[in-house]
Structures are given as structure tokens and as C-alpha cells.
Amino acid sequence: MRVDEKPIEWVGSSKEDLRSFPLVARQRAGYQLDLIQAGEEPADWKPVETVGQGVREIRIKCKDGAFRVFYVISRPEAIYVLHAFRKTTEKTEKRDIDLARARFKSLG
Questions:
Q1: pLDDT number for residue 2
Q2: How far is CA 79 from CA 23, 39, 58, 65, in A?
Q3: Are 44 and 56 in contact (CB under 8 A)?
Q4: Is the separation of the CB atoms in 49 and 55 below 8 Å?
Q5: Which helix (H) or strand (E) holds 37?
Q6: How far apart are CA 64 and CA 22, in angstroms?
Q7: In this structure, which CATH number among 3.40.50.11270, 3.10.450.50, 3.40.50.10300, 3.30.2310.20 belongs to the domain 8-106?
Q8: Which secondary-structure segment (H or E) carries 90?
Q9: pLDDT tens, per residue, the chain with 108 residues
Q10: What is the pTM of this model?
């Protein structure tokens, strides 16, 4: 980690969930998180206000499918990764939103 980077805090099983991604998706997610740590924007992201204020998602597409990483960057002390999952439907499933929302609320 470079001196000017924010550390990443993994909430719940988010780190293990990201590690379960196929190799290419995992590499792309890691690269996007590196960009965020360096203060840059990821290549493909959008806000996810249904989870909580300041929550964003990284969107990853590869031959293995679509993957999402929900995170919070608005806290000064760290980047919090709330949830990482494979997207299997057009709309993000309620269980993924609910899990990320609960983890967001646990941050206080």
C-alpha cells in the first residue's frame, strides 16, 4: 500500500466472496479496487443508494458472467467493501441488496 492510499476494510464475508470469483473477474475487481485506493474512479461503477448513502458498485463483465462489488468510499478512514457477488439476473436480487444494507448499517 502506498502512503497516500486508503486501506480497504472487508465487511463480513466480502473478501472470501471476492476470492471465490473466477480468476479474470477477481483480477479485474482487484485492479478496480487498487484504482479506488489511489483516489481514482473505477472503469464502470454506479451509486447504489438503495443500499445506503455513499454506497457504490463496481460492475465487472467477463466471459464468466457479471460480477458486482459494493463499497463505501465516503468514510475518511478506509474504503469498506460491503459485498461481492455474481449477478445472475437483470435486476440485483433483493437478498444481495439486503445483505449489503445490513453490512452498511453495521458500520454505524
A1: 60
A2: 23, 11, 13, 25
A3: no
A4: yes
A5: helix 23-37
A6: 7
A7: 3.30.2310.20
A8: none
A9: 566 789 999 999 999 999 999 999 999 999 999 999 999 999 999 999 999 999 999 999 999 999 999 999 989 899 999 999 999 998 999 999 999 999 999 998
A10: 0.93
Strand 8-10, strand 79-87: pairing: parallel
Owner of C-alpha cell 448499517: 105
Could you tell me if 97 and 29 are in contact, meaning their C-beta atoms sit under 8 angstroms apart?
no
Per-residue pLDDT, 79: 97
Contact in structure between 36 and 42 (CB atoms under 8 Å): yes
- Please answer whether residues 93 and 23 qualify as being in contact, where contact means their C-beta atoms are separated by less than 8 angstroms: no
Q: Is 13 helix (H, G, I), strand (E, B) or coil?
A: coil
